[in-house]
TrEMBL record:
Annotated protein name in UniProt: Amidohydrolase 3 domain-containing protein
Classification via Pfam families: Amidohydro_3 (PF07969)
PANTHER family on file: COLLAPSIN RESPONSE MEDIATOR PROTEIN, HYDRANTOINASE/DIHYDROPYRIMIDINASE FAMILY MEMBER
Organism: Paracraurococcus ruber
Domain (Amidohydrolase) ranges: 44-553
Xref: InterPro entries: Amidohydro_3, Metal-dep_hydrolase_composite, Metal_Hydrolase, Metallo-dep_Hydrolases_sf
Length: 571
């Protein structure tokens, strides 16, 4: 007798094959039958034509700190993710000497927008080496499986101390030490190494990250570590202002390491030729036999703007800032006062706040044509008619007046969507091209990061609701294609051969999904992080069950309390 049988399911097996009807049976932590008519089960679930898919394998998250205290890891786990990988973008918390703890917290706060106080209270720091960090992760019972990569910035700080923070060049001795420690981390179970070479990533103090300008010799040291370990990949984020120069060292890295290299792949509205140049460079590198891959997301990289989020169009005005610490009901009452409203709308950006707040604050402050009403259900492919500028014109108001009144209406939870990348054409045409490019891998959920400005940990659900079912402004994508991109392809990319497909003998990580009823709600802010830290989450309906290692961890949206998740070690 099987432990659990899903009867009459529409099976999407993760390989890209067409969906097919049948039963799926599980025994212990393994799948034992896919399709056909299964024998009896100790528990039988009537799928009734609902989808059964592999669990989502999310390879770009930032739960580096949260995974040490939180066994559940929303908003990824409740959106069907059963395996997640963090340590991305070169930031993390290991290896770490005691004297550098605050510097690494400031780095994570600056790059990934998680309040530093959350880490100050939440991290136990019962590790120094990367291997000890893995041991800490491995001791915690958890809902889903997790793995991590070695982040370059903390490695550099561990070896070089203040010289790394000042972005000094590494000496030959420094490079040898980083190479040795990186090889040790990879042998201990790191899934690769990540770094960052973008001006967009800055510390809390507004400084460039430690590895921003690491030279060729230092990067080749990391390549040799990957070659020595014989596993893992290099992941990075770069500005690609000089595509030829970046690809020159990346090709050298791939040749030296013999391992894959992947990077975040975006367009830029100010440089429409950038994306085609990078795409062509990937193809040329692959023609040389080099495993260079672009990592792409499923919707525009952007921000959520509202009264509860980190940023909004009025954040640079002193009279608005004075009310920031008030609880939402009192804050709304004050904001709706006609005198307060008039005072705020009459103000310009404050020089004091311009010095204190991110440069992005100034960029968004008056870009009314680039802000769109998010709505319920959330609309991440809005037309120009949904911009604040267009809606204000129709209402006969100035954009700032219209925006102020919109955000201060309701319960204060309304939000605007502000796309930053992959929306230069005003639709998702570029994103569809990137998703369909065979030289890309799916990622970029950023789960666990940017807690006050995005909620892209929910993006696997969006991939089904938008790209498979609902998209109206252009072609959709086949169900089996989207599922493959989020399961077998991401699992294979990280060397996880035991998951990502529904086949006998493989790990029983799966989702039972009502595609017609699947719905991710409007993001909402909750204060459930250590020290009362806030983050955006999205409630979801339509997941009948999420199973990890043969055990249901969510049923009908409710956590079961079962903790079958483990730390994954590469190799």
């Amino acid at each position: 007798m099987h432990d659990i049988v899903f009867r009459d399911a529409l099976i999407v097996d993760g390989t890209g094959a067409a969906p097919f009807a049948g039963d799926l049976a599980v025994e212990g932590d393994r799948i034992v039958q896919v399709g056909g008519k299964a024998g009896a089960g100790r528990r039988e679930v009537s799928a009734g034509g609902r989808l059964v898919t592999p669990g989502w394998v999310d390879i770009h998250t930032h739960y580096d700190g949260q995974a040490t205290w939180d066994p559940v890891l929303r908003p990824s786990s409740n959106h069907g993710v059963t395996t997640l990988i963090f340590g991305n973008c070169g930031v993390g918390f290991a290896p770490a000497r005691r004297e550098h703890h605050q510097a690494l917290i400031d780095l994570m706060e600056g790059v990934e927008e998680v309040p530093g106080v959350v880490f100050t209270e939440g991290l136990r720091w019962d590790w120094e080496s990367f291997g000890e960090y893995l041991d800490t992760l491995g001791r915690m019972p958890r809902t889903v499986d997790v793995g991590t990569q070695l982040a370059h910035h903390p490695l550099r700080v561990y070896v070089m101390g203040e010289r790394a923070i000042r972005r000094e060049a590494a000496t030959a001795e420094d490079i040898a030490a980083m190479e040795r420690l990186a090889a040790e981390a990879l042998r201990a179970g790191a899934f690769g190494i990540t770094t960052s070479r973008t001006d967009q990533h800055m510390t809390r103090a507004g400084e460039q990250v430690p590895g921003r300008y690491s030279d060729h010799a230092e990067l080749m040291g990391l390549a040799r570590a990957l070659r020595t370990a014989g596993r893992g990949a290099l992941g990075l984020n770069a500005d690609f202002e000089d595509v030829e120069a970046e690809f020159a060292w990346m090709r050298d890295f791939a040749r030296t390491s013999g391992r894959p290299l992947y990077f975040l792949h975006f367009d830029r509205a100010h440089d429409r030729a950038r994306l085609p140049r990078i795409t062509a460079a990937i193809r040329a590198a692959r023609a040389e036999g080099l495993a260079l891959t672009g990592q792409v997301g499923g919707r525009p990289a952007g921000l959520l703007l509202g009264l509860s989020t980190d940023l909004n169009p009025f954040i640079l005005r002193e009279s608005f800032a004075e009310l920031a610490t008030l609880q939402m009901p009192e804050r709304l009452a004050r904001l709706r006062d006609p005198a307060t409203r008039a005072r705020i709308l009459a103000e310009e950006a404050s020089p004091r706040l311009l010095r204190l707040l991110p440069p992005l604050s100034r960029f968004i402050a008056t870009r009314w044509e680039g802000m769109f009403v998010l709505g319920e259900p959330p609309d991440y492919e809005p037309t120009a008619e949904r911009s604040i500028a267009a809606m204000a014109a129709r209402a006969g108001q100035t954009p700032q007046d219209y925006c102020y009144d919109y955000l201060t209406a309701g319960d204060g939870g309304r939000m605007l969507f502000f796309p930053l990348a992959n929306y230069a054409t005003g639709d998702h045409a570029v994103i569809r091209d990137l998703l369909c490019d065979p030289n890309t891998v799916f990622g970029l959920s950023d789960g666990g990061a940017h807690c006050g400005s995005i909620c892209d940990g929910a993006i696997p659900t969006f991939m089904l609701t938008h790209w498979v079912r609902d998209r109206a402004r252009g072609p959709r994508l086949p169900l089996e294609f989207v599922v493959r991109r989020m399961t077998s392809e991401t699992a294979d990319f990280m060397g996880l051969s035991d998951r990502g497909r529904l086949a006998p003998g493989l790990k029983a990580d799966l989702n039972l999904i009502d595609l017609a009823g699947l719905r991710a709600h409007h993001p909402e802010m909750v204060a459930d992080l250590p020290a009362g830290g806030r983050r955006l989450i999205q409630r979801v309906e339509g997941y009948g069950m999420t199973m990890v290692s043969g055990l249901p961890v969510f049923e009908e949206g409710e956590e079961t309390g079962v903790r079958p998740g483990v730390l994954l070690r590469a190799g």
